[in-house]
Amino acid sequence: MTLYFVVPCYNEEQALPAAAKALGEKVDALVSSGRISADSKILFVDDGSNDKTWEIISGLHRDGGVFQGVKLSRNRGHQNALLAGLTVAAKYCDAAVSIDADLQDDLDAADKMLDEFGNGCDVVYGVRSSRKKDGFFKRNTAQGFYKFMRKMGVEIVYNHADYRLMSRRALEALEGFGEVNLFLRGIVPMIGFKSGTVYYERGERTAGESKYPLKKMLAFAFEGVTSLSIKPIRMIAALGALIFLVSIIALAYSLTRHFTGHTEIGWTSIVVSIWAIGGIQLFSIGVVGEYIGKIYLETKRRPRFIIERYLR
After folding, report:
1. Could you tell me which of 17, 214, 28, 219 has the C-alpha nearest to residue 103?
2. What's the rounded Cα separation, in Å, for the pair 307 and 132?
3. CA 51/CA 101 separation, integer angstroms
């Protein structure tokens, strides 16, 4: 079978040399053992980097036939870069493994993924067995992320990022999802083919800095929820109904106080009510506006990525 490793890269000049070495050794070992064919490749996707990432990818391509490179015309974000690589790989491979350039994900787990693929799984998820190496804040925010996504109605594999194996059939099915607002962790489970899970311990980043600080993680979570679930809008509707019910109770109370001669003039409750209702309204308009914005982007049907160069 022909296997492609798809590696999205954004400003990874520090991590790429070590990543290329480790990935090259893994492919050589799998080829030597007869598990994959000699036509297998490592496909780096440069997501509009502004450092020497593409120069390094080009050098790797010149030095060894196992390395390929795709250069996007501009930065399109991790999910679009990953999709670009998977779309290219789908034309030539029997299966593709997506993995980040920092190689925090255990490469040896790819062997187990191949076992699951051999057992008939079209999608094999790489899942962290624990988060002991994470700090308290990182561990709890990450776990909160997955729990929050599930509560919002997003079908997502717990503690799974984007380290997975997908068969050509699954990759072709993925191409059928045409939305511009991408959240692959939620889209891939929707394909529905037979899937498996491989557990592994995540290591430390080999070099460079994380591309997902807290701010980006929060934006990523919001993108995932609004792209795959309408539950926030339903929650706003429920909140509106609750506030309406409270207002009816408050009206009945006020009328009772008035007709019994206990009317009191005060501004505190009025001011608090105005601020509370006003804040809720603005928040609700913002959430609804986010969905309208996504509809606007989807109707434009702009390309999710544009490939500038492909070093095959």
Report:
1. 17
2. 39
3. 15
Give the Cα separation of 172 and 259 in Å (integer).
Answer: 71
Q: Give residue 48's region: left, alpha or beta (phi > 0; psi -120 to 50).
A: left
Tell me the C-alpha distance between 79 and 187, whole Å.
Answer: 11
Distance CA 211, CA 216 (A): 8
Residues 48-72 pLDDT 10s: 999 999 999 999 999 878 999 999 9
Tokens 């809008």 correspond to: 233
Q: What are the DSSP calls for 169-204, one per residue?
A: HHHHHHTT---SS--HHHHGGGG-S-EEEEEE----
Q: Strands of 123-128's sheet, edge to edge?
A: 195-200, 123-128, 160-167, 95-98, 3-9, 41-46, 67-72, 307-311
Q: Do the strands 3-9 and 41-46 form a parallel or antiparallel pair, or are they unpaired?
A: parallel
Answer positive or negative: Cα dihedral of 130, 135, 136, 142: negative
| Measured distance CA(234)–CA(242) in Å, rounded | 12
Enter the pTM of the model: 0.77
Q: How far apart are CA 104 and CA 142, in angstroms?
A: 16
Distance CA(241)–CA(249), nearest Å, equals: 13
Alpha-carbon distance values, 173 to 1, 183, 192 (Å): 19, 15, 10
User: Could you tell me if 307 and 45 are in contact, meaning their C-beta atoms sit under 8 angstroms apart?
Assistant: no
Sign of CA dihedral 210, 290, 158, 111: negative
Q: Calculate ∠ Cα 18-34-123, nearest 5°.
A: 70
Nearest to 20 by CA among 158, 86, 244, 28: 28
C-alpha–C-alpha distance, residues 98 and 302, integer Å: 24
Per-residue pLDDT reduced to its tens digit, 172-229: 999 998 888 788 988 899 999 999 999 998 876 555 555 556 666 667 666 766 676 7
Residue with tokens 């699951």: 116
* Residue 291 identity: Y
